[in-house]
Write a structure and sequence with these properties.
The chain has 106 residues and is mainly α. 57% of the residues lie in helices and 9% in strands. It is built from five helices and two strands; from the N terminus they run E-H-H-E-H-H-H. A two-stranded parallel sheet has the order 1-2.
Length: 106
């Protein structure tokens, strides 16, 4: 079982660029090209997992998870199994919206 956290690609690129700049390096290429590469890569990975019988995939929209974690927690627990994730309250406490930087409007 795979929980795929889908974050807007623009946010991923902004986050990566900031991390690279903090290391004193220059971001590779232009953002438009990188966004298209990431989009194509994401689509290929998801298609591959969804078509493989050994995978069960739950795609979670990251911004909505941060905004409304309660609904997602129950979906995740149902997907993984409540016996494997018995502590819903602990899962909710783990979501820290203040750590969600480089975000689009959520």
């Amino acid at each position: 079982r795979v929980i795929f956290m889908a974050r807007p690609i623009g946010e991923v690129i902004a986050s990566q660029e900031k991390m690279i700049l903090r290391r004193g390096a220059r971001p590779p290429g232009d953002a438009k090209h990188m966004a298209e590469d990431l989009r194509l890569h994401r689509e290929a990975i998801l298609r591959g997992m969804e078509s493989a019988p050994q995978f069960e995939v739950l795609t979670v929209d990251f911004p909505s998870l941060v905004k409304e974690p309660g609904g997602w927690m129950e979906k995740i627990r149902a997907f993984v199994g409540t016996d494997r994730l018995p502590d819903s309250a602990g899962m909710l406490r783990a979501v820290q919206p203040e750590l969600y930087r480089n975000q689009s409007d959520i």
